[in-house]
């Protein structure tokens, strides 16, 4: 797993897990943590148990939502069964012994913490969730649990980079209609009428504008580093039938 000094605290555990170190085979090799993939369920459960152990929590305390590319956030205080997971794209808690996880394969995982208040969050930010405010709502939900926005650290993990994220001619207006200055996150690509979209840059800018105390962008590209990361876009370029999901997680240590 990849860690950052920005989230280094005796009260926290965190990790942006790579695709390495798990039990899955084939196109899911090897640390695929996506229950919604076509991978063998037992392999995914073993992989998630491996992650839970690294996060110092019980296997059923590694929580991830049924992600729907929304801005919706849920505050959690106890584990749930896999089939009961909420349809949201961010989780917040102040309960120790729970690990909040988000699954990605090009979208942005963002981990949040206010260690002083003992409040953490994790958000899945694809372009839809980013545009509609999933990170903004995560900050708000954390404040509702006692965090102070100026103390919150937000770290953007491995995701598709601008160089690999080409979009069509109709795409930029979704962002520029919301805010004209968002045009700076689009650069013309080599294909006429197409653009390269800097989603990590957009997320970083939005978090800073929303007043997060510290924003860190790890600047790691899932598309370009096949050895470390799964990538939905790489899979579609190859016409492969499915793809693995990376997990990024954060927890409040007990004791």
Q: How would you describe this protein?
A:
Strand 6 and strand 7 form a beta hairpin. This protein has one domain: CNF1/YfiH-like putative cysteine hydrolases, CATH 3.60.140.10. The mean pLDDT is 97. The radius of gyration is 17 Å and the shape is globular. By secondary structure, it is of the alpha+beta class. Helix content is 21%, strand content 23%. The strands form three sheets. A six-stranded mixed sheet has the order 3-4-7-6-8-12.
Overview in brief:
This protein is of the alpha+beta class.
Task: Please give a handful of descriptors for the protein shown.
255 residues; 6-stranded mixed β-sheet; alpha+beta; CNF1/YfiH-like putative cysteine hydrolases; 6 helices
Helix-strand pattern, N to C?
A: EHEEEEEEHHEEHEEHEHE
> Describe the biggest sheet?
6 strands, mixed
SS class: alpha+beta
The amount of helix comes to 10-25%
CATH top level is Alpha Beta
Number of domains: 1
CATH domain fold name = CNF1/YfiH-like putative cysteine hydrolases
Distance between the termini: 23 Å
Tally of helical runs: 6
Give unreliable regions as ranges. Answer: none
Mean pLDDT: 97
Shape type: globular
Strand order of the largest sheet: 3-4-7-6-8-12
Q: Using only CA atoms, what is the Rg?
A: 17 Å
List the helices and strands and how they pair.
Elements: E1 12-16, H1 41-54, E2 62-64, E3 73-75, E4 90-93, E5 99-104, E6 108-114, E7 119-125, H2 127-132, H3 134-144, E8 153-156, E9 166-167, H4 172-176, E10 186-188, E11 195-197, H5 199-209, E12 214-217, H6 232-237, E13 246-252
Parallel strand pairs: 2-5, 3-4, 8-12
Antiparallel strand pairs: 1-13, 4-7, 5-13, 6-7, 6-8, 9-11, 10-11
């Amino acid at each position: 797993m990849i860690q950052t000094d920005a989230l280094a605290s005796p009260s926290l555990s965190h990790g942006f897990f790579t695709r390495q170190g798990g039990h899955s085979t084939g196109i899911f090799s090897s640390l695929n943590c996506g229950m919604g993939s076509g991978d063998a369920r037992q392999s995914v459960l073993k992989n998630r148990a491996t992650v839970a152990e690294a996060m110092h929590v019980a296997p059923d305390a590694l929580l991830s939502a049924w992600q729907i590319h929304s801005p919706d956030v849920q505050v959690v205080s106890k584990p749930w069964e896999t089939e009961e997971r909420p349809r949201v794209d961010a989780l917040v808690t102040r309960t120790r012994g729970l690990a909040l996880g988000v699954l990605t394969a090009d979208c942005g995982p963002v981990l949040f913490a206010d260690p002083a208040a003992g409040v953490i969050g994790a958000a899945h930010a694809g372009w839809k969730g980013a545009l509609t405010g999933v990170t903004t709502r995560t900050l708000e939900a954390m404040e509702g649990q006692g965090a102070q926005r100026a103390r919150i650290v937000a770290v953007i993990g491995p995701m598709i980079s601008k160089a690999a994220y080409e979009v069509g001619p109709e795409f930029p207006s979704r962002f520029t209609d919301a805010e004209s200055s968002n045009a700076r996150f689009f650069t013309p690509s080599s294909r006429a009428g197409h653009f390269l979209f800097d989603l990590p840059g957009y997320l970083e800018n939005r978090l800073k504008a929303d007043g997060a105390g510290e924003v860190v962008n790890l600047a790691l590209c899932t598309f370009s580093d096949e050895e470390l990361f799964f990538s939905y876009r790489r899979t579609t370029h190859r016409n492969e039938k499915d793809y693995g999901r990376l997990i990024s997680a954060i927890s409040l240590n007990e004791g």
